[in-house]
Known about the structure:
This protein is α/β, with parallel strands linked by helices. 34% of the residues lie in helices and 24% in strands.
Amino acid sequence: MIDLDALVNLREMNADETNFILSSWLKSLRAHSVYFGSVPDQIYYEAHGESIKATLECSNVLVVTPRDSPDIVVGYLVYENRSDKYVILHYCYVKNSFRRMGIAKLLANQVIDDRPVYVTHLTNKIQMKDLRFNPYFFKQENI
């Protein structure tokens, strides 16, 4: 078993990491979602990109970096705490070479407690129980 605490740091996103988060979210969602994979490129990248930017402005983003390379993001979780009522998980991403090490679970465990958990983006990679899908918690801009 890998001791992730010895290998990684958890921290809030820095502003200069926004482009990486936007790009990786768009590309991985498109690759792992039948629904988003069917939207024409121009519409998807423009419209969903604007919605992600709006979501990032009002959400928390927790990133994982290697302990010895704190400037390299290997994964992240975009989420919102809605007071005592519930938690919204917008998107979780882990780079391919770091998957299946427990990083997504580590991220989720930082924000999930006994409150209900809603997700705004379902992909074929989600393996958590008791999630409530509600895409309407995702920020939509008038496009």
